[in-house]
Amino acid sequence: MKPDTPHIYLIRHARPIINQKGFFTKAQAQHYLQEYNVAEVEQVIERSEHLPTDQIKRVFCSTLPRAKATALLLFGPDVELIEDATFKEFENRIWGLPVGKFPLKWWQVTSRVLWLLGLNQKDIESFKQAKARASQAAQHLIKEAEETGIAVLVAHGFLNEFIKRALKKKGWKVVLDGGRGYVGVTQLEKS
Q1: Using an 8 Å Cβ cutoff, are 159 and 134 in contact?
Q2: Apex 138 CA angle, 135 and 142, nearest 5
Q3: Which helix (H) or strand (E) holds 24?
Q4: DSSP readout, 110-165?
Q5: CB neighbours (10 Å) of residue 98?
Q6: Strand-pair partners of 174
């Protein structure tokens, strides 16, 4: 049964099983990013009570393994899973001089801030391109929600945030904000 009001659910993937503790050289931080993209995820203990699992027949997800694995953990093998590179996380590359060891967070935050400022975009998607892709992803989800009443995406924290912003600009209202935590669910409806 199609709901009266279309809904979109944005879900962040489960926590990847990968070590983030300690101090990393630039090369180790780069290696961590590669490993993060293929890491397995923790089991999902509790599913959000806000997900109408009985109505969800199709789930969109990123092509990255952590999103696909999370979608299967949440919705099982019987759901139609649609992998699409449009829903991949915003790219990141580690920036900095190859000297010294720092916490992983330092490498990640510094690199991401410089990327946002347009100073760390060599060989990867720019912030402007990534925002445009998030807007395109939002339009794809709107189309699905308007046709079937519901659209569900399992993807990534940064991407989901910018999809949410694009949806709000198009008149969608956040009724539940799960934030950017692992397996966080953000629910929007057409206002």
Answers
A1: yes
A2: 140
A3: strand 23-24
A4: HHHHHHHTTSS-TTS--HHHHHHHHHHHHHHHHHHHHHHSEEEEEE-HHHHHHHHH
A5: 9
A6: 188
Q: Confirm if 102 and 23 have CB atoms less than 8 A apart.
A: yes
**Which pLDDT does position 45 carry in this prediction?**
66
d(CA 179, CA 168): 15
Evaluate whether 64 touches 90 at the Cβ level (below 8 Å). no
Give the span between the Cα atoms of 56 and 16, in whole angstroms: 24
- From CA 75, how far away is CA 83, in angstroms rounded? 14
Listed as ranges, residues in the chain with pLDDT below 70 are: 1-3, 45-46
pLDDT at 1: 44
Domains and CATH numbers, the chain: 7-190 (3.40.50)
pLDDT, tens digit (0-9, with 9 covering 90-100), for 115-159: 999 888 888 999 999 999 999 999 999 999 999 999 999 999 999
